[in-house]
Amino acid sequence: MALAVSLGDPAGIGPECIVEAWTKRNEEQLPPFFVVHGADVLAAAAAALGKSLAIRRIDDPGECETVFATALPVLGSQDAPYRPGQPDRTGADLALASLTDATAHARAGTADGVVTCPIAKAQLAEVGFTQPGQTEFLADQCGLTHEDVVMMLAGPSLRTVPLTIHVALADVPRHLSSDLIVRRARIVAAALQRDFGLAEPRIAMTGLNPHAGEQGRFGDEEARIIIPAIERLQNEGITVTGPHPADALFAPHERAGYDAALCMYHDQALIPIKALDFDSGVNVTLGLPIVRTSPDHGTAFGIAGKRVARAFATIAAIRMAGECAARRSAA
Questions:
Q1: Same CATH fold, 150-274 and 3-145+288-330?
Q2: Where are the alpha helices (DSSP H) in the chain?
Q3: Residues 6+ apart with CB under 8 A from 300
Q4: CATH top-level class for 150-274?
Q5: What pairing do the DSSP bridges indicate for beta strands 33-36 and 150-154?
Q6: What is the three-class DSSP state of 110?
Q7: What is the tens place of the pLDDT at every residue in 240-260?
Q8: Fold of the domain spanning 3-145+288-330
Q9: How are beta strands 150-154 and 282-286 bridged, if at all?
Q10: Residue 36 contacts by C-beta under 8 Å, 6 or more apart in sequence?
């Protein structure tokens, strides 16, 4: 079979990154994938990049593997004008249709997984998108609560998980609880085994405060919330260490000692992954019954269509989705 790729906002860099990924499919040894909707957008994006691109419309995902060697397979007929850098309602309609239908194929088993290109949430909200982001959308589509799924950022050097995401920094302490940490750490440990092939995953937990609280001098969340959660997880047989001071946890010699770092808030997790693996970072949704990855960047409207966007993260997301799907299939 093959992976389903959603187009993302057609005014962003998603279409050109998809084009670039397909043109480099052999040298990057990418698994077969098909794009859901947007054949005209992709053709226009290829022309803007000066690339010769063969596009083949397919009627069934099963055709993808045969077509993929010589043409970019596109399933579905919805389309929009290609206006890089100019997001509009028509493009948002296309982005939502592509995301919805690509997810449906993964859920139905007619695709091995879904790779989602970047969306513009403000534009999607105008056409009925009510979730905070694509991670929550995938959870809803799979019949899960938002607490049942976890966002992990993965690159060649590091994997990180933010335990709180789009929360004001001042509000982070009240959102943290031992139950939240335990629930998400369990999901991470299970996914590292199932999707990443790690028989005994090692998890490092950051502290919330400077120096991990320094025995209560700089805050008591470590003693009240984080340490009890770590002890519960260790009693369940999960290898967890911490709480570690976040300013030291991402040094090279420290990274060798764990497989994923669970961080207390958004920037604590995203700053190191973007500093180390900006061009190859992948957003992986853990806890889903389907495989889902996404390049760890936004729509980048400001550079769309200008021949400067780099497709490394899209290529990495496609490759990682294929690897995860293969491990699930072999299990």
A1: yes
A2: 14-23, 39-48, 64-67, 89-108, 121-125, 134-141, 172-175, 178-194, 221, 227-235, 246-249, 252-255, 266-277, 312-330
A3: 12, 13, 118, 309
A4: alpha beta
A5: unpaired
A6: coil
A7: 999 999 999 999 999 999 999
A8: Isopropylmalate Dehydrogenase (3.40.718)
A9: antiparallel
A10: 4, 5, 6, 7, 74, 75, 76, 97, 98, 101, 102, 105
Phi, psi of 162 (to 5 degrees): -85, 125
One-letter amino acid of 50 = G
The CA-based angle 294-297-298, given to 5 degrees, is 105
d(CA 225, CA 274): 28
pLDDT digits (tens, 9 = 90+) for 190-222: 999 999 999 999 999 999 998 876 777 878 999
Inter-residue contact 262 to 226 (CB < 8 Å): no
- Residue (of 266, 243, 237, 257) closest to 160 by Cα position: 266
**CB-based contacts of 214, cutoff 8 Å, min separation 6:** none
Percent of the chain residues past pLDDT 70, beyond the cut: 100
pTM score of the predicted model:
0.94
Q: How far is CA 190 from CA 197, 287, 328, 330, in A?
A: 10, 8, 12, 16
CB neighbour class for 101 (10 Å; exposed up to 12, middle 13-18, buried from 19): middle
When computed from its CA atoms, the radius of gyration of the chain, rounded to whole angstroms, is 20
Q: Is there a contact between 3 and 318 (Cβ–Cβ < 8 Å)?
A: yes
pLDDT at 11 over 80: yes
Q: Hey, which residues does 56 pair with through a beta bridge?
A: 73
Going by the DSSP 8-state scheme, the letter that residue 30 receives in this structure is P
The token pair at 181 is 């940490």
320: exposed, middle or buried (Cβ count in 10 Å: 0-12, 13-18, 19+): buried
Coil, helix or strand for 162?
strand
What is the signed CA dihedral for 116, 327, 251, 280, rounded to 10 degrees? -30
Q: Which two tokens stand for residue 302?
A: 């400001």
- Look up tokens 């976890």; give the residue: 150
Domains of the chain, by residue range, sit at: 3-145+288-330, 150-274
